[in-house]
Amino acid sequence: MIKKITDSIKYIGVDDKTIDLFESQYIVPNGISYNSYLIIDEKIVLMDTVDKRAMAEWETNLLEGLGDRKVDYLVISHLEPDHAGSILRVIELFPDVTLVGNAKTFAMLPQFFEEVLEVEKLTVAEGDKLEIGSHTLNFIMAPMIHWPEVMVTFESSEGVLFSADGFGKFGALDTDEDWACEARRYYFNIVGKYGGPVQTLLKKAAALDIKIICPLHGPILTENLSYYIGLYDTWSSYKPEKKGVLIAFASIHGNTKKVAYKLADMLKEAGEEKVVVSDLAREDMAEVIEDAFKYDRMIVASSSYDGGVFPCMQDFLLHLKSKAYQNRTVGVVENGSWGPTAAKCMKEILSTLKDVTILEESVTIRSSLKESNMPDMEALVKAIINK
Ligand code: FEO
Q1: Fewest CB atoms within 10 Å of the CB: 37, 58, 244, 365?
Q2: How confident is the model at residue 256 (pLDDT cuts 50, 70, 90)?
Q3: What is the mean pLDDT of residues 248-277?
């Protein structure tokens, strides 16, 4: 699919609706797009390639977009194979192409493709410009969003920011769905650890007159840019986006699940407007991680297991730790039929997280919820409502 973005900028990317797991870990029910762009001027710039999976369709788009012209420069914003996977094909088609990247790009590129050693290269650094006629590319380094070599490019004559993985979203381009939901799941699971670098980039971007954002995944953003930039500011500063409680549970035979839903009912009765309950054993972990970051409070409820905590709960908490989950309040519920151990394990992980308050009002269930547990349940509900 070729789409006109402006008179001289074309989208030549590809939708992938057959991939089973993006990055071998994320379900993408509506696929994913690998975005690639052409800037047509006295010189022609290709902004990134696509995953090798999609190379044939992309090559058709590329050649159609070029007409009888050739690629003069290939800007490599990001080396991850979902974008750099077709670089060698560009070199085969256009042996005189100049690869544009930064020092880190060219340090890593031969690790993927030794063949590039002989190809012409232009090494750029923060603030460097490349004039290709009436268009000027301004290079801005964006390390760790989400690899170290990442850079974004601002085309200043038309105000177009080529934002690499930033402002990306799961879902093919022809998917009609809310942007924020799948962009948030993408952000926290893929870029979430790197809030600091995103904040740095947002500060640089604030000085630019951006009219269009062209990310490497998901739709091209042309309107209401302050909405998207505002969400990125919230997400990358680890501020909760909404007031609400996520109850994430790990239940073996259903008794801990009953406790989770009982807590949800009690919270709602106590006036909490937004309560989300998630089954860690069955639901998409990436979605639950997204919700953990979205809301300001969380309750984790888990069965004890093998002298520790049920594995999917441990996996969830370690995922949160790796994504730099912070600045939230968490309540803990454990279940155990003989020696309950889940709370201790959960608290051990939670206590390593920055600015996470673990409520003292925890609950221990012995096998199944009983009337005798209600005072502790009520105390936990009261404590989390008052946070
Ligand atoms: Fe879309 Fe970090 O690759």
Answers
A1: 244
A2: very high
A3: 98
